[in-house]
Amino acid sequence: MLKTLKYTTLVFIAINMFTSILYAEAIADSESNLELLKRKNLHIYYTPFATTQYTEYPFRIRNENRTFSLLYGFTEKFYLGFTYSRGDSPKFKTQIDLNSSPIGFGLQDITKTRESEFFVLRSQYFFFGNFYGSANLGIEKGYKQEDKNFRSFQGVNTTVEPYSKTTTYSDRFFGTVGLGYRKEVFGRLLIGIECEYGIMNSGRRNQHYTFNPQFYNGLPPKYIIDKFVITNESKPNSEFSYISLYAGIAI
């Protein structure tokens, strides 16, 4: 009898210990799953593709591709960070000038500093699962374009005209609100899409001309066309819509 009671007690203790271990493992596994489901604090992503549409045309359009974003989650739902775009590299090109020569043909050189470089202070709030709303403020850096080395052709002779034009574009401010979806895949990878609506001001544009009036016996034809034929008035603020696809990592 005593021996049977001893075996029963040992079996009961063994079963109790085994079930306790299973229960502890289930809790630990559940907690680890919850940790995996929690949104990571740091989101870093890159936008290789974006499309923009403006209400005013022609308007100084910004290149929205190739942006880098970094956001930190102060809570699981609220993220704050920035978006930065290096923009387009400085450019130099030679193109046909239809106003340089009496026969309507010439060449000119165009030099442009870095364009479409901008910085955005970005905030996002996840309100339903992986869906979020955003409110953003940004500034786009201005740039400069110089048109010079106008070369006219008459027969086999080439004449470099004493004429140049420099156009300076000021910084521009803009603000947007958006709706997006971002999901963490395999725990670390990010994929997302965002649609934004915003208002951007046109900025200022200053043009400076340098030429020798004696060479032209008055005002250069290209100056007259630029100032009195082609309308160069500043555009008002423009509304714009913006759709971007992005991918990155969560840390």
Walk me through what this model shows:
- The protein is of the alpha+beta class.
- Helices cover 20% and strands 52% of the residues.
- It has an 8-stranded antiparallel β-barrel. Strands 4, 5, 8, 9, 10 and 13 form a 6-stranded antiparallel sheet that branches.
- Strand 11 and strand 12 form a beta hairpin.
- It is elongated, with a radius of gyration of 32 Å.
Describe the structure concisely for a colleague:
The chain is an alpha+beta fold and 251 residues long. The chain has 3 helices and 14 strands.
Average pLDDT over all residues: 84
User: What Rg is obtained from the alpha carbons, in whole angstroms?
Assistant: 32 Å
Q: How do the strands line up in the largest sheet?
A: 1-2-3-6-7-11-12-14
% residues in beta strands? over 45%
Helix content: 10-25%
Which structural category do the helix and sheet elements fall into? alpha+beta
The backbone outline, from C-alpha atoms, is: elongated
Low-confidence stretches: 4-32
> Number of helical segments?
3
SSE order, as H and E? HEEEEEEEEEEEEEHHE
DSSP strand count = 14
Give the biggest beta sheet.
8 strands, antiparallel, barrel
Measure the end-to-end span: 62 Å
